[in-house]
Amino acid sequence: MNSDPDIQNALQDGDVSTPREHDAAVLSAARSAAADIAARPAAATDQNSAPGRNRWPLALAASFALGIATTVAIQEMHGPSINSGAAGGTLTIPVITVTRDGGEPAAERMLPVSEADTQLWLEYIQELVYNGELAEAEQHIHAFRQMHPGYRYTP
Hints:
It is a single chain. The protein is mostly helical. Helices cover 60% and strands 5% of the residues. The protein has helices at residues 5-13, 19-38, 42-78, 118-130, 134-147; strands at 92-95, 109-112. The longest helix has 37 residues, at 42-78. The termini are far apart. Mean pLDDT is 76; it is low at 80-87.
């Protein structure tokens, strides 16, 4: 078996200690190191963990600010929200009057929603949704729910 010449010389000279003496030396060194660690002041341990504690409120504040900024950006992108009310004041729906003689329909007029039939109003809201005018549809549905809180749709 090929081995290191230094090891061979140490074995022949008898400089190698017995396993028990070696185990006792390692155990003594480990106990000494543990005692040194236990004897360290508590302030040194707290200094190592302090930066982590100081980052927590900063991270919380940053995520809060990011949430607010994102909400504002989304609201601006999608127009007025449900709670912002009608942009022009009173909500209206377009109404076209048809004559019986089959002639030209009369001019389109805007009917306030407070005077409109509920079914006509709901159909107009559906048209708004189908046409992609979601901001205006949200305003109308919000007003509809306020004016008719107990309304149940029956197909």
